[in-house]
Design goal:
Helices cover 34% and strands 22% of the residues. By secondary structure, it is α/β, with parallel strands linked by helices. Strands 1-2-4-3-7-8-9-10 form an eight-stranded mixed beta sheet, with helices on both faces. Strand 1 and strand 2 form a beta hairpin.
Length: 252
């Protein structure tokens, strides 16, 4: 069951749409459910909502998933370069050299506190850390890694697909290197596609970044799953193919 709600992002003073997937029998039971928060919520469920006309097909996949849950997707800011700004916790330069002031820490704090409190008070959730996950792709994947590390007290699992580490690699590597030990029940899925770059040097760079981060996260106590999607590109159609890979690793 898909619903949409508008929510107020207090630190940005902006209204934004939540794309929420509830179990089909949500209103016929009194059960409480785990929650998976995800960035770029408009790309998760319906092709007509997706930026490029193709979604992850996550609503259809989750119907038959053994562990029923609530998925809360936050739509991105579509204005100019605001998505890049909101979905990166550090300042960086875009491909054209433009400097982007990353405000991702602000958005992550809001999601981990105010948004989570809203969802827990309006839906029948299991609000504890063990039943709370975070996920996203590209810049959203970067934010998912950042979120599970910075707020390991809130999130116990993270799906990080095609994460855009290259924008702020030194800062992300430093963050994970210096972070205190993560809770040993933390699960983190890291993926990248062999066709994302189009050139071998790019594939080597993405592979090195993901495997290095997986090693560092493992050293800090997390269980990681680095996954190279053969022939995978940087698109929703290929991320949809990973639903049966990351969801069982995180939740079963």
């Amino acid at each position: 069951m898909l619903i949409k709600e508008n929510v107020w992002i207090t630190p940005y003073k902006l209204e934004r749409t939540l794309h929420i997937c509830l179990p089909d029998d949500y209103h016929e039971s009194d059960r409480r459910y785990p929650v998976m928060y995800m960035y770029d919520g408009h790309n998760l469920f319906l092709d007509e909502d997706a930026t490029y006309g193709k979604s992850w097909g996550l609503a259809e996949y989750i119907k038959d998933f053994p562990r029923q849950m609530i998925i809360v997707g936050l739509e991105c800011n579509h204005e100019g370069s605001k998505r890049l700004e909101e979905f990166c916790p550090y300042p960086f330069r875009d491909f054209d050299g433009t400097r982007v002031e990353g405000t991702g820490q602000i958005l992550m704090e809001w999601m981990s506190t105010e948004l989570k409190a809203y969802i827990d008070s309006h839906f029948r959730t299991l609000p504890d850390r063990a039943n709370t996950g975070i996920g996203g792709s590209s810049m959203g994947g970067l934010m998912a890694v950042y979120s599970v590390v910075r707020h390991n007290d809130v999130y116990s699992r993270a799906a990080c697909l095609s994460s855009a580490f290259t924008f702020c690699w030194p800062a992300m590597k430093k963050l994970v290197t210096e972070t205190p030990a993560l809770d040993p029940d933390t699960r983190i899925y890291l993926s990248w596609g062999s066709k994302e770059s189009g050139r071998k040097p790019g594939l080597v760079r993405y592979t090195n970044a993901n495997l290095t981060l997986a090693h560092l996260l493992t050293m800090r106590g997390a269980l990681t799953y680095p996954y190279l999607q053969v022939y995978g590109g940087h698109c929703e159609a290929d991320w949809e193919k990973q639903n049966p890979v990351y969801m069982p690793f995180l939740w079963e």
